[in-house]
Structures are given as structure tokens and as C-alpha cells.
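pasting input
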Amino acid sequence: MSIEIDEQKEYIKKIAEENLNKNMKYTILTMGCQLNENDSEKISGMAEQMGYSKTEKFEEANLAIINTCCVRENAEERLFGKVGELKNLKEKNNMIIAIGGCMMQEKHMAEKIKKSYPHVDIVFGTHTLHKLPEDIFKVINSRKRIQDVIDIDGRVYEGLPISRANNVQASITIMYGCDNFCTYCIVPYVRGRERSRNPEDIINEVKEVVKQGYKEIMLLGQNVNSYMRAETKRGECKSRINSFAKLLREINKIEGIERIRFISPHPKDFSDDVIEAIRDCDKVCKFVHLPLQSGSTNMLKVMNRKYTKEQYLELVEKMKNKIPEIKFSTDIIVGFAGETEEDFEETLDVVRKVRFEQVFMFIYSRRKGTPGDKMENQIPEDIKHKRFDRLKELVETQISENNKEYLNTIQEVLVEGPSKSDETMLTGRTEANKVVVFNGTEDMINTIQKVKLVEDHMWYFKGRVIKEL
Ligand code: SAH
Ligand code: SF4
Ligand code: F3S
């Protein structure tokens, strides 16, 4: 553990002493991707050690934290709405309000919060998350507002406490930042340069979550298959586990895990060693999220994705040849600057050819400071929406066709718990991430069950447990 984290632990202790027997509560609202969710789990870990217990209700909270995302515009409206609401609640509980995450790394956003929302006590960034105890301590003791955002690339901090939100799947961040600079994307500007955690730290964390009973782990990074690349280039990687493929193989050896997933790999870096590791490792799900973004080689070039339509399709073919049962999900952006009708048709063509199990579809959102925002040939909103609807229609048709192939098959389902819509039923996921709802008993939770899929409801299946003889 580093000196910085030791220091924060001292602040945690001091706050815990002040909070003792006061029934203090915290709440956290997380926007954005799973990396942010994982950051929030670390924030929760710190908050709980500081003597705050969790509540879902802002009205009850003495400490309210919002962990923001800025990948698309809609998050901004949501944030300002929420921060506005908190103004009235603040007095009631003497609430400390802290806003952090990616959006706070954008100077204009951090400034806007500072100017227009004086009731916000702390603004922290993605590189200063570990300093939250110190920031909170200062607010408690001086009631001064704190702005704790740095622009330089953060380091990797180990040893932060963590309070996981999910009881079945444990998220483990393996690397931070992104060096790819896709022209539409803000992430490299708000998350800094790529830096990987040491394999030993990751493996220890996996062993730890296995001890706690987790069966599935999700390895996280903006570009997981460039794991340890920057470090290797700089001659800083001391371990023999110096690539994503090797990391997968190492984690696969750990006993007690049933499933290993990862997001997101970048198609340009999907080397054969990773494909072979997926094939050889029995616990690695044969289900890969392979972000396409666009099916048009022209657009991919403008997006700085560094692969062509053909290369993407060849990669999919190669993976299908080496791992016949493999399935894919993807991310697609419609309406990026300069996208013509023909370009969009190319995207539809790839969707038809690959037959994804899941497609996360996004309408292009201009992000200040990215090259995409400065491009002149922006697409009118109505055209973007029309294309989005056409893509959605195709995707839905394909999913319902794919579903037919699953009907009446027996799948291994990792059981998560009672279904949200019907508490008397259990819910879980198949290897290809299909949601299955079925009748079962409590002891099945957090185990893998063989379930026959008997009814198709588009976004989920109803299933029946197959009893082993
Ligand atoms: N690093 C990951 C994901 C990053 S963000 C990857 O490369 O796959 C998640 C998704 O949001 C991206 O895959 C992309 O499809 C979408 N996205 C990113 N920037 C966007 C923007 N400006 N407008 C709309 N969608 C965007
Ligand atoms: Fe954004 Fe591209 Fe990096 Fe993904 S790989 S985070 S889309 S810049
Ligand atoms: Fe959003 Fe930051 Fe993730 S911008 S998508 S929360 S890395």
C-alpha cells in the first residue's frame, strides 16, 4: 500500500471517530459504465469505513455522492436536475454533497458546478477519488468547499477498501485510462493515459472475491487487450504476466471461479493469443463484447478506429473458426459526422452478417474538446434518429430470430437471486448473458443450474430447472 493510501486511512479513522454512534448515512448515485460502477464500489468502501451506512434515499443521507459520466450529453441534464433537487435537502441533514467522476474532469463542467451550485461541497475527479476521505474531513472541520480535480494522469492506487454492489458478479478493474483517442470519444481526456494494475494485485483481488463466494468475475478496462502494453513498452513490466492473454490464463487457474468475463476489448488489438486464451480457458465465457461503432470503412477511418469493415468481419470469422460456439455483443454509434446513407447501410450489413446477441446502440453526441465535435459535416438530429430506429428494428428482428435457436435448449444459468418483477421467481444469466427467469429454491442462488428455456419473451426467457438424476 502506498503512503498516499496510508494517509487516507488516517482520515478515514478520524471521520469514523467523529461519526461514532451518530447513525450517519451515505447514498451514491452512479452514472456511466461499469468502470464507474467499480469506482463507486471503492467510494462506498471508503464511506462505510468512515462510519456511514448505505441508504438508497437521498432524503436520509448525511453524505450524498454523485459519480458522473460524460460520454454522452444526456447525463448532463440528469446531473443538473439531481444537484438542483439536493439544495433543499441539504439543510435538513446537514448533508455533505460530493460530485466526482468523469464529468468533473471537464473544466467547463467543474466550473459550472462551482459557480451555479454553491451548495455542492466537494468536486473531485477520476484521478483523486482516493482522496475523498481527506476532502470530507476538511469539509467537516472547516465547512469550506473543496475542488480536488487534477489534470495530470493519475497513478494506480492499491489497497482502497471496497463494498461491492453485486453479490454474484465481482467487477475487477485491470487497467485505467485509454490511449486510443477515437475521434468521437471523451474518455481519453477524462480518464488519462493507459495504466495497468500489476498482475499480482489483480490475482490477489480475484482470490479475495473467490473467498467471499463470488462465482463470476468481470475484468474491466477501456481497452483490456492492451493490458500491460504501455508498461512493457517503457520497460516497466517486471512480471512474466505481461499481456491480456497471459492474465486470462493465470486467472483461469484460480479455483472457485465459474465464469470470467471482460469488457471492453478493441478489435484492432484482438491478437491470436487472446483468441487462443479464450478458447483454452474453460472458465472464460465464449461470449465477447466486440465494439464495432460503425460498419463503414470510411467512417471507421474518420473515427480513428484503425480497422476496416473487412478486418472486423475477418476477425469475427477467425474467432468463430477457432471457437465454434462463440457469440458476440457490440456497441454501435449512428450519425457520426459525415455518415452517409451508404455508410449507414454498411453498418446494417455488418449487423446482418455477425448476428450479435446484444447491440448497445447510441446516437452520436458531440463532446466538447474531441476532434469529432469540430468536424463540419454534422448529421441533423432527425436523420440520426431515423437511422437509429432502423438499426433498432433490424437488431430486434435478429434478436428474436436468435432467441428461437435458444428455445428448448438447456443452458447453464448462474443464479443471481429473486426476479425483480416477480419475487417468487429466480433470475440468472446464461454464458451468452441471456436473462432467464424460473421457479427455484433459495439454495440455488449463486450456483450454476441447468435450465431448459421454455418461453421466449424477447429480453428474457422463462425456464425450467432440469434436475440432475
Ligand atoms: N472503451 C470502450 C467503451 C467506451 S464508452 C470501447 O471502446 O468499447 C462506451 C460506448 O459509448 C462506446 O463503445 C461508444 O459506442 C459509445 N460512445 C462513446 N462516445 C460516444 C459519443 N460521443 N456519442 C455516442 N456514443 C458514444
Ligand atoms: Fe473511447 Fe475509443 Fe477509448 Fe473506447 S477505445 S474509451 S471508444 S477512445
Ligand atoms: Fe462515462 Fe467515464 Fe465510463 S465518461 S462511460 S463513466 S469512463
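fyi The two ends are 50 Å apart (CA to CA).
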